[in-house]
């Protein structure tokens, strides 16, 4: 009964969203699925609202308090479920260190150095929440401030404060804070007097005040319809140590040569009303023109678990890909139903297409990043469209960042100047 109601609500939301925007039906990617989310069907996702309002979604009376990465303190222990015959509490994995609850915020950042398996101390099924562990109760509380040095393209391959491994965690799930530039583009809407967040697309933070996404994600939405969420990891729960940051969108600029029917030049810039605070889980991606074509990553939340009202985790997914030469990509796409006269526009770049590689788990507007050779990552593409999903020999198609890098930078500088946000130095985007 409850499930049926849920499905009806979700369907209703999808119908509302799909009929709300005057989007044209597209011809090319008819059966695009998760990763290359069909641009004419906005996905409906009920994301939990931020910490304070999100209380009704958690079984716990209170979540641990924290202050934008400036150290954190534990909520009173009696707000956590008891375990280990009352000697321990069920807490999020990042608060547990060697079986003892961590109360020193700074110490959390040492967990990854020891390469602990945070799930190792999980005692069977005593703690029911995903990534909660049974931890011995602490002796003292002593929060400390944490400093963070921002840098574009920093991938935290081992997570920000702990590497998550073990049962229930899959290889295609990103570590917490692994891709700090990853953004979720959302739309707030009132449904049955309740404000819900509807997921539209992925995006990437290229400047503390600028998010890059696909033009086909924007459709007819206005800046005032949109919000951007940064530092998000599991869309269904708000248990992360470093909370996500939500920003209103003040201005939207779509590329002047965007062709909705063919998705040429599908670039859009979202300017945030207040700059993001750069923290270990929220930072920018680089915008370089030279990068490796191998060991690139696409990330996205996909759609498979959305709308489950917080019952299941929906952790950011990642897939490793290689970038194609455009001519070879055009040839490969001509073997599909696109036909032998298909012409791949210069504004595209292709990636993926290896059999067995799941390239579907993500969304339109999400970034494709490649290593620039010094350990940092630069954005190479924006998820645009595909033919099918993860089919051998058929790559996914992305907007080519290099192709419009000048427009991205010039437009950003112009709008930032108009917004009276300090314009970055010429070297910033490198
Ligand atoms: C992307 O665009 C740039 C500039 O137009 C071009 O030099 C580059 O070859 C393109 N990338 C690929 C993989 O085709």
TrEMBL record:
Top-level taxon in the UniProt lineage: Eukaryota
| A Pfam cross-reference name | CLIP_1
The record's section on PROSITE patterns has: TRYPSIN_DOM, TRYPSIN_HIS
Signal peptide per UniProt: 1-20
Instruction: Tell me which SUPFAM superfamilies the record gives.
Output: Trypsin-like serine proteases
What's a single GO CC term here?
A: extracellular region
Q: What is this protein called?
A: Peptidase S1 domain-containing protein
Per the UniProt record, the source organism is: Petrolisthes manimaculis
């Amino acid at each position: 009964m409850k499930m049926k109601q849920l499905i009806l609500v979700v369907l209703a939301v999808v119908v509302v969203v799909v009929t709300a925007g005057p989007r044209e039906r597209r011809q090319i990617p008819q059966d695009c699925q998760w990763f290359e989310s069909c641009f004419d069907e906005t996905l409906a996702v009920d994301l939990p609202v931020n910490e304070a309002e999100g209380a009704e979604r958690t079984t716990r009376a209170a979540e641990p308090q924290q202050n934008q990465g400036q150290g954190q303190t534990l909520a009173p222990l009696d707000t956590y479920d008891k375990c280990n015959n009352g000697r321990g509490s069920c807490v999020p994995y990042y608060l547990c260190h060697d079986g003892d609850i961590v109360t020193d915020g700074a110490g959390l950042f040492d967990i990854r150095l020891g390469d602990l398996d945070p799930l190792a101390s999980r005692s069977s099924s005593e703690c029911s929440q995903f990534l909660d562990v049974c931890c011995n109760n602490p002796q003292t509380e002593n929060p400390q401030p944490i400093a963070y040095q921002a840098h574009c393209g920093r991938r935290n391959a081992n997570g920000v404060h702990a590497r998550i491994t073990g049962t229930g965690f899959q290889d295609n799930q990103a570590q917490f804070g692994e891709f700090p530039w990853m953004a979720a583009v959302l739309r707030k809407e009132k449904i049955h007097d309740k404000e819900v967040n509807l997921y539209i697309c992925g995006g990437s933070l290229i400047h503390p005040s600028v998010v890059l996404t696909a033009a086909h994600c924007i459709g007819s939405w206005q800046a005032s319809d949109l919000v951007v969420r940064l530092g998000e990891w599991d869309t269904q729960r708000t248990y992360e140590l470093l909370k996500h940051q939500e920003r209103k969108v003040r201005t939207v600029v779509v590329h002047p040569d965007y062709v909705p029917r063919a998705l040429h030049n599908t670039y859009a810039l979202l300017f945030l009303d207040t700059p993001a605070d750069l923290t270990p889980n929220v930072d920018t991606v680089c915008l370089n023109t030279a990068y490796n074509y191998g060991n690139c990553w696409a990330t996205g939340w996909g759609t498979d678990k959305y709308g489950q009202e917080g019952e299941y985790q929906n952790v950011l997914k990642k897939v490793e890909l290689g970038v194609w030469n455009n001519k070879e990509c055009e040839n490969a796409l001509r073997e599909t139903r696109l036909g032998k006269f298909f012409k791949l526009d210069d504004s595209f770049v292709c990636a993926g297409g290896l059999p067995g590689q799941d390239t579907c788990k993500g969304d339109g507007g999400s970034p494709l990043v490649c290593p620039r050779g010094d350990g940092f990552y630069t954005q190479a593409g924006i998820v645009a469209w595909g033919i099918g999903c993860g089919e051998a020999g058929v790559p996914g198609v992305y907007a080519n960042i290099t192709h419009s890098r000048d427009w991205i930078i010039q437009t950003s500088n112009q709008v930032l100047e108009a917004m009276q946000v300090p314009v970055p130095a010429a070297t910033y985007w490198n």
